[in-house]
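lol so apparently i was supposed to do this last week
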Amino acid sequence: MAEPIFDYEPLCDDLGPAKIVHVHDPGVGLRAIVVVDNVACGPSIGGVRMAADVTTEEVFRLARAMTFKNAGAGLSHGGGKAGIVADPRTTEKEPLLRAFAQAIRELRDYIPGPDMGTDESCMAWIHDEIGRAVGLPDVLGGIPLDEIGATGLGLAACAEVAAEHCGLDLSGARLAIEGFGNVGRPAARFLVQRGVKLVAASDSKGAVHDPDGIDVDEIIAVKRASGSVCAYSRGRKIPKEGLFAVDCDVLIPAARPDCIREENVDRIRAKLVLQGANIPATAAAEARLHERGVLVVPDFIANAGGVICAAVEYHGGSEADARERIVERITRNTREVLEAASARGVQPRAAAVALARTRVEEAMALKRHFA
Ligand code: NAD
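anyway here it is w/ nicotinamide-adenine-dinucleotide bound
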């Protein structure tokens, strides 16, 4: 085998990455990485993560996840991602984002969106510089994806199909949500509208458990006012790690990566796990859940609502178009993935990767330079 010509060559495979770009602008102290993984389905869309410890490998993994998420959702977009190496609390955020935008001006097959450490104002600054970004404020034609709860809406659509698949009646089903943020809060709201009973919710400060049911509007208001679900007036306060052991039917991890792992996987009592966060379970823990008969809908199928909304915005669609597209795509994809997994006797993730990979490969076969 030939010697690798650059450090990250071992990460490459038949899908990508197409480009790994390192940006350095000492004038403003900008250090950034952009990975355009695969553009066979169209220009890549993916978030700009701002974190002091973001690495090229992390950005590559996230870009690949976007390739699968976008293809899985049937979008005419490939996968990409960017990382700006900086503390998101920096007072120099705007100059950094503007310099970053200028640096990627000619990287036209990458369309930036918000991610950890960036928001719609950051996307507005990028758009102001180069006219290319999604997740914009509504005054610039953006669809406020967190306000409409795009990812939560998709999770609720996913829950309907998955519950039917595993013989669970959503009406009265008990729900626990880890991470009561922009994904967890709307997921709770949309699922309660479908008759689900929220019994536990957590955030970075702790968790609350009430088997009789938590009032979703009240806990959302409490979280907004006090900054934590722990200030909810009823139920029992439990440590945040205790959320995974709560007696429930549906569990939505919607916070950090790898929170379901070997040490806690066997404490999970839910019949259905919908992955709201990206990579919330280790591969071994996900396999263990499958072995135990727990149905797990993988992240890039279940949490695609946000990027579907961003793609609708990019193509000039309305908020109503976005809602319709999210429900339609996620319903269809969840059904297809779960049916394929059952038919082949494999984990839903294996079926989901196969579905997304096939779509990318079909698109690649239509490209001259990939033939
Ligand atoms: P957010 O910052 O709005 O909310 C995260 C929530 O998790 C907060 O309430 C925080 O207090 C809580 N949290 C942090 N650490 C915790 C811990 N150890 N235990 C319990 N709770 C904890 O973030 P978000 O936008 O809701 O994103 C959550 C996850 O979903 C991330 O993995 C993100 O990449 C992924 N995701 C988000 C979207 C989106 O549309 N926002 C779309 C797809 C995937």
